[in-house]
Specification:
By secondary structure, the protein is an alpha+beta fold. The chain contains five helices and 20 strands. Strand 14 (247-255) and strand 15 form a beta hairpin. 34% of the residues are buried.
């Protein structure tokens, strides 16, 4: 295909393997085969810099009536948003350290106001030589590659730091969101020229990512952090919230390399007191929760039920898209 494309980019538009359902010839749709195909394909595509759209993010039960059980089980995640057993959204061959890797942006307000993106990558192995950053900004509901199409990858210095000007076009200062993704150097990030949503392949191939919302900056005030209290309690207030009864909070913690719903699967959301927009709840409810490295809080409409996450290497990116505001705290 590449040999006859006359220099045009070749993208795999759809590829996947179902985790359940009827056999198709000699091909067996089951959990083991689906996860093996997923991992081998990601390793191959990352190594060769192949851009793709993996089919699909979630299982869709409604397809049973039209396509049988096989048609309803193509998701990397199940219908609740939890990553299926045996799947991992990072290449297990990557030299990931025992501690959680995260993007530490130095001055978020300066990034939004001036477009000066700088910071460090925490716990990054090999001095960062095998990695780079991909950055995108959202202007008028559309995403754009930054700094430029010609330079879509931001280098990471030996000190594991980065420093780059991402506002390179007229109107960039009006961006509403900024997404920063840590990816293997072998991965070619998609070029976004005014697209409505970032492709799943970007989230699947990234080691970690941060999404900054301009309107959400500092809207969640933390009074008590579970990282600083032996009780593991989280409390705070939501600023500029007119009707607290229309919202609730979803909280997740990262233990080791996996994210977990908190406080519990039975109670996956926190109530917001409408009298003063405050919230309070014990978050460390598991035996290893005190070793958590990160905590993520999302303000969601009460009609939006958060996915139940159990050890997933990434939080579902739908959380970032559906939330009114969010905040991520590092231990």
């Amino acid at each position: 295909m590449v040999s006859i494309s006359n220099g045009k980019k070749v993208v795999i538009a759809e590829i996947g393997w179902p985790s359940a359902g009827e056999k198709h010839g000699e091909a067996s749709p089951n959990q083991k085969n689906a996860s093996q195909f997923f991992q081998e394909f990601l390793a191959w595509s990352n190594k060769n810099g192949i851009e793709y759209f993996y089919f699909e993010a979630f299982d869709e039960g409604w397809k049973v009536a039209h396509e049988g059980e096989r048609g309803a089980h193509w998701g990397v995640m199940d219908s609740t948003g939890s990553l299926k057993e045996g799947f991992s959204l990072q290449d297990e061959k990557e030299p990931i350290s025992g501690q959680s890797i995260s993007i530490q942006i130095s001055n978020i307000q300066q990034v939004l106001d001036e477009g000066k993106l700088q910071g460090t990558i925490k716990n990054l192995p090999n001095d960062g030589k095998d990695y780079s950053l991909a950055c995108f900004i959202k202007v008028d509901s559309h995403w754009w590659t930054k700094p430029t199409f010609e330079s879509p990858c931001i280098p990471i210095y030996q000190s594991r730091s980065f420093n780059v000007q991402i506002y390179t076009g007229e109107g960039d200062v009006n961006s509403s969101e900024i997404g920063v993704f840590l990816v293997p150097s072998s991965f070619s990030p998609p070029l976004a020229g005014g697209i409505e949503s970032l492709p799943d392949s970007l989230f699947h191939s990234s080691i970690c990512y941060e999404v900054i919302h301009r309107e959400s900056l500092n809207e969640i005030d933390i009074h008590e952090s579970p990282f600083s209290l032996s009780s593991g309690n989280l409390s705070g207030t939501i600023r500029s919230l007119s009707n607290a009864l229309q919202y609730h909070l979803a909280v997740f913690i990262k233990v080791g390399d996996g994210w977990w719903t908190k406080p519990t699967f039975v109670h996956p959301v926190l109530f917001i007191n409408p009298q003063n927009n405050s919230f309070s709840a014990p978050i460390f409810t598991g035996p290893n929760d005190s070793t958590a490295s990160e905590l993520a809080i999302f303000l969601l409409s009460k009609d939006c039920l958060p996915p139940k996450v159990a050890g997933s290497s990434h939080l579902p990116h739908e959380l970032f898209e559906q939330c009114k505001t969010h905040r991520i705290i590092h231990s």
